[in-house]
Amino acid sequence: MQQLVCPKCGETVSASNINVQELVAVCGNCDTVFKFESPAERAKKAKRRKVKQPDKLTLQETTHNLHMDFRTNFRLDQNQAFLGAAMGSGISAMFAVWMSIMFLFDDMPVLLPILFAVMAILWGYQAALVAYNKTHIDMNDERVRIERKPLYAFRPAIDVSLAGADKIDTVETEISIERGYDTPRFRVFVERHDGTQRLIVNDLTEDYAYFVSRVLNERLQAIREDYDTTRLTDMNDDVDVISDYQIVGQAQSQRVNE
Questions:
Q1: DSSP string covering 9-36, please?
Q2: Cβ contacts of residue 146 below 8 Å, gap of 6+?
Q3: How many CA atoms lie within 13 A of 85 on its CB side?
Q4: What is the DSSP letter of 187?
Q5: Which helix (H) or strand (E) segment is 253 a member of?
Q6: Residue 148 clears pLDDT 60, i.e. is over it
Q7: What percent of the chain has pLDDT over 70?
Q8: Least enclosed by CB within 10 Å: which of 19, 88, 176, 216?
Q9: How distant is the alpha carbon of residue 148 from its chain centre?
Q10: Concatenated DSSP letters of 69-109
């Protein structure tokens, strides 16, 4: 383990004063108790700092809003949803053509080729949703909104509240770990003060996941700092108002006594 240094006095902390499970240490020189990061967490943060903005990801920031959008962030020939929809559309289309021919030259119910034609269209639309639609992420001071467009995706936009949010992080998905994907997939989520998590976006490649989570987390921390500063200013203003009332009250009492 890398040696820990006390943040207060700068002395090296002995191994006997380090609790690896709780990630807490106590300085034997000045008795300062402090938390530290695990090597894995430090490596993770260092990796995040090195991640550049992906070429196919668009990022726009204003004072009160952040917007990101990107299409499928890994190759379509490795996207199971796209491959399944494309195969379903192709097979349904072939059956529709074959049954149409059978209808013309044989006693085939007309509903069957129509049914397979409709199935081909629906599967084709599903493939288009994966290949053409973009994931849009909008963040303001109160929530993160996620939606897929411009094609109608049969599901509304998702709003993730930032109330009680502690940080925005990313981890590899369980199915990616279990199946050992050649291209690991990650999910980005909000972690709240009580330890609960709320998914923002799923099934991202590593570079997209780390970049998205880093940008969103930086924005979240900036929002929290602004809130704390504003709250402190309001509290100081309240104290000043109370002090002014106390001064006026004392002056009035003096005049009455005189």
A1: T-PEEPGGGEETTTTEEE-TTT--EEE-
A2: 135, 136, 137, 157, 158, 160, 200, 201
A3: 18
A4: E
A5: helix 206-257
A6: yes
A7: 79
A8: 19
A9: 15
A10: EES-SS-GGG-HHHHHHHHHHHHHHHHHHHHHHHHHHS---
